[in-house]
Design goal:
The structure holds 2 protein chains of 2 kinds. By secondary structure, chain A is mainly α. Chain A has 7 helices and no strands. Chain A is globular. The mean pLDDT of chain A is 91. Classes of the chains: A mainly alpha, B mainly alpha. Chains A and B meet through helix 1, helix 2, helix 3, helix 4 and helix 5 of A and helix 3, helix 4, helix 5, helix 6 and helix 7 of B.
Chain lengths: 181, 185
Amino acid sequence: MRDEENIYLALITILAPLSIAAIGGATGIYAPLQYETVVLRNWVTPREFIDLFAVARLSPGPGSMLAPVIAWKVAGVSGAIVATIALYLPSSILCYFAAGVWNRHRGKPWHKAIEAGLTPVAAGLIFAGILALLQMEQSGWLSWITVALVAALLFWKPKLHPLSLIGCGGLVFFVLHWFGF
Amino acid sequence: MDSAQPPVSLAALWSLFFRIGLFSFGGQVTSWIHREVVLMRGWMSHEEFLSGLALAQILPGVNSTNAAVFVGQRLRGVPGATVCIVGMLTGPLAAIIVAWIFYTKLVDLPGFSSIIEGVAAVALGLLARMGMTAGRSAATGILPALTMAATFVAVGILKWPMLAVVAVIAPISVAACYWQGKRDA
């Protein structure tokens, strides 16, 4: 049995630090979120986590919305609301105050330094997120080939619509599994 | 600023950002916000929005929700920012929970899990493509490449706490860029 108060506290202590540290957007939270909720706490299975990633991609809103669903699974509606606040409030407060300062100092040299200095940190976090998701892929070589194929295809034809690609992916996997691959 | 214009109403902010949030499928959300706020409504100048967008992108958090906070802050201060961010997240939160309930009902149907696997694999491919772009724009020299590698190893492989890693690496990286900029100037 889990103590209810502990669950809310755990959600806040997991998500609030990620909110402040997720430079580079939602992808940055996948690696630590996977570690906390799949490896350390067993709140969701690896398969549920990767499927949640897929469901989040099919739903409106940012990809980080998968965290409130994990919270909903372990602590119901109130858990989902607590998780949403923990995940978006700290970064929003930071953004609120930064917006005022940022506008007053437009074009200063430290502006450029912040942008240039944070870009590689964001890229590192994005790679960590991709690795965490790849490690949870369930269908082995077929998924790996698809990931590489989609990335290459977008390199070649960047204007392809993401949702149509996703639709094709679902269909192709369905047909392949139907024929026993 | 022309003070003759009446302030944008909180109801107008709510209805706009609720709609954007609910229909924000598959990225491109910030360009949608730009179209609605700058081009269609003229609530903000193009330059002001772009400056805010640059901030939204480098700050932690999601670009689109940060942009919503920025727009709300500029137009109506704390209540404006609150209305924008809450409006933008309410629809998606309800939608993804409904989607997850559907998922749990359908997951045992034959073939359904294959579709979800396909969706996940393509979505990961999209992320990988984004990672390639991020990596290329970051790897402009030895120092940023090292920063990128150190962040990746610490968070992705060693599983160190992300906030601590960012709190150490980010200031060092920014300071290094600042000094480099001064030296080159």
